[in-house]
Amino acid sequence: MRIATFAFLTLILTSLFALPANAQASRTYLVNGIASAVPFIGYGMRNLKKKIRGAKLFSYLTSGEGSRVARNITQDVIALHAANPDIKINLIGISYGANMITKIAGTLAGRGIPVNYLGIIDGTALTPIQANVAKADNFTCTNADCTGARVQIISGNTITVFQKFSIDSAHIALGNNAQVHSRVVAQIR
Fold first, then answer.
1. Domain 24-187, what architecture?
2. Cys-Cys crosslink for 59: which of 36, 93, 123, 182, Cβ 3.0 to 4.6 Å?
3. pLDDT exceeding 90 applies to what percent of the chain?
């Protein structure tokens, strides 16, 4: 009797929390920049997280901590992909976090793991985008504190749908920009 009850409860819970037949599992990673653990610096990505159900947000203080974040995200994506090769991976980063997500996407390319969306928000030392990335946006800002770095598409990549946006904003404020948030939310679907 207990086994039948357990099986029935499992069936009910599975049907309640299952994705619709046409839905696809996804994971979104939001990666802040250096010193983003300070509340008045990393607020934009924290606000973006509120708009993306289930997104994982990473904030830190130093580049050393950022390197650990990048390793953890890479390992997590590899494990998720091994469990479900159809999972849609979305990577969004600002400043040093933008540098990290382009590097992570390059590492995933070497393992044959696709990235659904790469949202690059005013990074500095950006790794060229490889053909494992389906969609990518490069957001830059115009104020004096902005880096203005533009990511490149690796030679021969005809797969990635790529857009560039220059927005009248300051560097930190760009992460909280309504146009950036709207575009990111639309692209991760």
1. 3-Layer(aba) Sandwich (3.40)
2. 36
3. 82
